[in-house]
Structure formats: C-alpha cells, structure tokens
Design goal:
Blueprint (H helix, E strand, L loop, with lengths): L7 E7 L4 E4 L4 E4 L1 H10 L5 H11 L7 E5 L7 E5 L10 E7 L3 H17 L5 E5 L3 H7 L6 E5 L4 E8 L1
Parallel strand pairs: 4-9
Antiparallel strand pairs: 1-6, 1-7, 2-3, 4-5, 5-6, 8-9
C-alpha cells in the first residue's frame, strides 16, 4: 500500500502557547517542543521576541503573514499568519510548517504533535501532502498583498525573512 507523505503541517493555537513563564523569575521561555521543531529545521527565530512583537506591535484588526526560511533545508519554511482578529479573545495564531523533505517532516511530527497537545487552547492540527494556502503564499513576492480581511478591510501582505 502506498503512503502519502506529509509535507505541510497546519496548527492553530493561542500565541500565549508559544512561550511560558518561569513564575519565580518572571522570565519568558520558548515552548520546548516548538523550539525543537524549529531547531530541527534550522530556522533561527526568537519565539519570545516574535510573541512580544505580536502583542506589542500588531494592532487588533491587522497583521501580516511572515515567512521564515530554513538555513539548510531547501524550500522549507515556517509561515506565521499574524492577523489579530477583531473578536478573537484568545489570540489564536495559525502557522504552517512546510517542507518537501519527508525525512525532515517525519522528525518534526512528534515535536509538533506534543506542542499542540500541550497547548492551553489547541484549536487545529493538520498534517497534509499539500495546502492551497501555503501554495498561494509561496507564489507571492515579499511585500505583496495576499488578501483583504473582510471584517476589518485590512490589506494583508506576505513578508519573507531570512
């Protein structure tokens, strides 16, 4: 029997699940499983800084899509939709991890599954062989408009980061 391999993960959780705080020190740290997945992909991003940016710099009713490239895996990405919905009180963020390297995606599965299962607000977890949304994002130039959000009329753009 032929197995269809996973190339894209889609997760929706609260942005607050991306980090945790050491109560005694008041220090924020990245979620260990999410950080392990990104380390495996060689995506250099400070999750605490991304959370700070999300909460401190992005107004409700706005937020773009940010794409982070793997340093060593070709065509492998973390894609974060930073749009802050007008009525979302849980700060739900959808993100995608894409890689055509099925050896890599098999390594990512346990980390991403544990991250999702331990989330305070686990909304969506999908493994798929393709995603029309990811395809559309990947065929967009950095800074290009991808859509207009109906509720707020926000013109959402895609930004590629190294």
């Amino acid at each position: 029997m032929m197995t269809i391999s996973t190339t894209v993960f889609t997760l929706s959780v609260s942005m607050t699940d991306w980090t945790y705080v050491l109560a005694e020190e008041g220090l924020f740290l990245p979620n260990a499983d999410l950080q392990a997945a990104l380390d495996t992909m060689q995506i250099k991003i400070n999750l605490c800084d991304l959370c700070d940016f999300y909460f401190d710099e992005i107004a409700v009713g706005s937020g773009d899509i940010v794409v982070f490239n793997s340093a060593i895996y070709a065509n492998s990405y973390l894609i974060v939709d930073c749009y802050r919905d007008l009525t979302d009180q849980l700060d739900i963020v959808t993100f995608y991890i894409y890689s055509p390297d099925t050896t890599l995606t098999e390594k990512l599965k346990p980390h991403l599954r544990r991250f999702f299962d331990s989330a305070q607000y686990p909304i969506n977890y999908q493994e798929a062989c393709a995603s029309p949304i990811v395809e559309r994002i990947m065929h967009t130039q950095s800074g290009e408009q991808i859509c207009v959000i109906d509720d707020s009329n926000y013109v959402q753009r895609v930004w590629f980061r190294e």
